[in-house]
Automatic annotation (TrEMBL):
Protein name (Swiss-Prot/TrEMBL): AraC family transcriptional regulator
Residue ranges of domain HTH araC/xylS-type in the record: 203-304
Region (Disordered): 303-322
Keywords: DNA-binding, Transcription, Transcription regulation
SMART domains (alphabetical): HTH_ARAC
Organism in which the protein naturally occurs: Pseudonocardia adelaidensis
InterPro entries named in the record: AraC-bd_2, AraC_XylS_family_regulators, Homeodomain-like_sf, HTH_AraC, HTH_AraC-typ_CS, Tscrpt_reg_AraC-type_HTH
Amino acid sequence: MQIYEYSAEELEDVTGEIYVPVIARTGRNFRGRSAIHELGETLTLSRTHWGPISLLQTDRRAAKATADNLHFCVCTAGRCRFRHHDRLVEPVAGTGMLAETRSPYERISPTETRCMNLFFSRDLLPLRTAEITEACARSIDPAAPAMQMLSGYLGRLFEVADDLTAPQRLDAGHAAIDLLAMALRDVAPSVPGGDGPEDVLLDMMRTHVREHLAEPHLRVEELARRHHVSVSHAYTLFERIGTTPGAYLREQRLLAARTMLSDPRYAHLGVSGIAAVVGFRDLRTFERAFRRRYGMTPRECRCAHSRSGSAPATRKQEMPAR
């Protein structure tokens, strides 16, 4: 577990580093605390305790988000107002709500608040694009059976995560997302039974990318050809999720490489072998891209994980033994 404690002056830097970039306004004596479990490369579970605060995610800040992530929050204490996708939510204790990190939002908390947070890659949630967007900024009733199951599970997982192995934490995180999907299906009755053809096509293309990363010849032109669309239309589709086909393909390759570098099951593979497995034909191109994305070389990433099991972070403390 990683512990972050920070003042008002440090708040924007910390939230940008561990959550998403925002504009923050607080009182002079604000203190914040976040305790974070890394369940997987694109999956974290955390508890936050903040004083009164105002957070604004503008279009420009949202564009700086480095990944297409989702944020599920369970308010456990305090009051707040949350505006997202032109919907306003005023959750009470125990309420859950979902947000897209690449879309603008505003959160105002006039009191101290405590929250449980699940941050994860959008690709992990087994719902269609339109279903996810429609479910955002809608209160999930604390009394709903699915929400009770999810809230209880997240609380228990937070307590025992340090005692789990890395594969167990990942499996537990995926189980939490499955429970979330069950809770979200009841939150917005207006969600259509199927996406429009453009959303379906985009989902098919994203799935194709993830399932064919090892093919070094997979490029934007090839992706468009296999789905019978023009290259310009492929770009238009990926604009829906704030990226380009090429950037999405590279991001998925780098995520896969980072996962393999941190997994002892792939210790027998050298860096060049991992680069080839995720579709990079040139080792130096892979190393440059990896360093730009993660601030370290692939070898440094592997060494950091072999020493500590997680990437280094600033203002970090280890949770004392229970």
